[in-house]
Amino acid sequence: MEQLEYKNKHISNILNEKENKDVYDFGDEYKKFLDNKTERECVKSIIDVARKNGFINIDEVNKLKPNDKIYIVNKNKNVLLCVVGNEDICRGINLIASHIDSPRLDLKQKPLYEDVDLALFKTHYYGGIKKYQWTTIPLAMHGVIYDKNNEKKEICIGENNEDEVFCITDLLPHLSKEQMDKKLKDGIDGENLNILVGGSSIDDSNVKKKILNVLYEKYGITEKSFISAEIEFVPAFKARDVGFDKILIGGYGQDDRSCSYASLKSILDIDKPSKTCISLFVDKEEIGSNGNTGMTSNFFYSALIDIISKCNGVCNLSDINTTLKLSRCISADVTNGYDPNYKSVDDEKNVNRLGYGVAISKFTGSRGKSGTSDANAEYLNEIIKLFDENNVVWQTGELGKIDIGGGGTIAMFITNYNIDVIDVGIPMLSMHSPFEIISKYDIYMLYKAYYSFYNKM
Ligand code: MN
Ligand code: MN
To answer: Counting ligands in written order, which one lies closest to the CA of residue 410?
Structure first.
């Protein structure tokens, strides 16, 4: 009788020598993708690599035929790649959907001020962060801003070694008694996440003016430019190997760029699939999927109509409804890994561990499965069968013990289309921190899982 035990199921025992090397190579390539630290940078980089692999903008084609490869981009922050299948698209598509936004610090619209001869930016955090983790680390500035001539400028400062970086200060321990007596969540106030962007010098009595001059000279930016800007401050360091065996990767934005990367790689690698395959990369997941580049936007629906129309010459209401009803989706997002320092938050019988393969979550949510889609048994069984037949090492778990907390993914928004959806991602330590940790084994296995979904489902 087969028993569901972890013993001997670690991926390293299952892979052969070549595959064990592939794991490291895959991880090294993936680390480069993590240089894309904003949704806009991800979209750019995804389109760039897609074009190099034969994908073209859907606007450049009138008719689509099997194995055609196209992309559709939405407002520079949301994109989908599609490989047309051999079968009629109205018999359903295979969709993998991940998100490319990550928790960070956005600038307020009037950010710059000076205090005690230092210049600072006021921020408004984006997504669920533990505020104390974002102080006293080097931060880089990314985003778009319109200069004095109303020309769009793309900003990226702090990623090269010679660049300046930015930082949020914290109180010295010597004077922190009051702060340390507070609850951890109250230790750093949201309105105190102010980023140091300049110091004074003898001839500059007005440091705000000095910084405005620098911004004007270097970038043509004025104080007014910030009002319409989208500026994101993110950790300034690169992704690195973690541990003596170099099997773990630490880095910013791995929720959810680990799953995005595996989704991207798998759609680039498929050839002549029978089902039409779509890899969707959405924005705004970390703030509830609202906004026209998030999963609740009309983008995916209208893009699918566009694709069906170009495949079949027409797309009436029943075509789109039939396609959606017969489609299958993997919601590609990370889940929590079992952390030896914080074992008490998890049910050890139902938790995912680093190095033990892709994590399947039948449901997410909290407080009695609230805020989740809960996958159907029939579909989940199909997925497990697919993975077993294709040597995909998988595990299954829940995000924490019941009533400890919880979280959601974009799965529930996709099920609104009547598509069958299951969450398949990888476990992660220190989620939403500036330095999230995953296993190279798991992301390699995730690629295999997504590839088999596109190719064999
Ligand atoms: Mn996520
Ligand atoms: Mn997240």
So the answer is: 1
Instruction: Give CA–CA dist 346/354, Å, rounded.
Output: 14
Counting Cβ atoms within 10 Å, is residue 442 exposed (0-12), middle (13-18) or buried (19+)?
A: buried
Domains of the chain: 6-102+252-456 (3.40.630.10), 104-235 (2.30.250.10)
Among residues 322, 303, 285, the alpha carbon closest in space to that of 413 is found at 285
Q: What is the pLDDT of residues 329-385, one digit of tens each?
A: 999 999 999 999 999 999 999 999 999 999 999 999 888 888 889 999 999 999 999
| Other CB atoms within 10 A of residue 420 CB | 22
Q: What is the pLDDT of residues 25-55, one digit of tens each?
A: 999 999 999 999 999 999 999 999 999 999 9
Q: What is the spatial distance between Cα 224 and Cα 272, in angstroms, rounded to a whole number?
A: 51
Cα 443 to its chain centre, rounded Å, is 13
Calculate the alpha carbon distances from 80 to 114, 446, 455 in Å.
43, 19, 18
Give the ligand at the shortest distance from the Cα of 258: 1
Q: Is the pLDDT of residue 5 over 70?
A: no
Report pTM. Answer: 0.96
- Ligand 2 centroid to Cα of residue 183, in Å, is 23
Q: Which ligand is nearest to the CA of 333?
A: 1
Q: What is the DSSP string of 237-292?
A: SPPEEESTT--EEEETTHHHHHHHHHHHHHHHH--S-SSEEEEEEES-GGGTS-ST
Considering every ligand atom, which ligand is closest to the CA of 256? 1
Tokens at residue 387, please? 């993975």
Tell how far the Cα of 369 is from the centroid of ligand 1, in angstroms: 18
Higher pLDDT, 236 or 373: 236
Cα of 431 to ligand 2 centre, how many Å?
A: 7
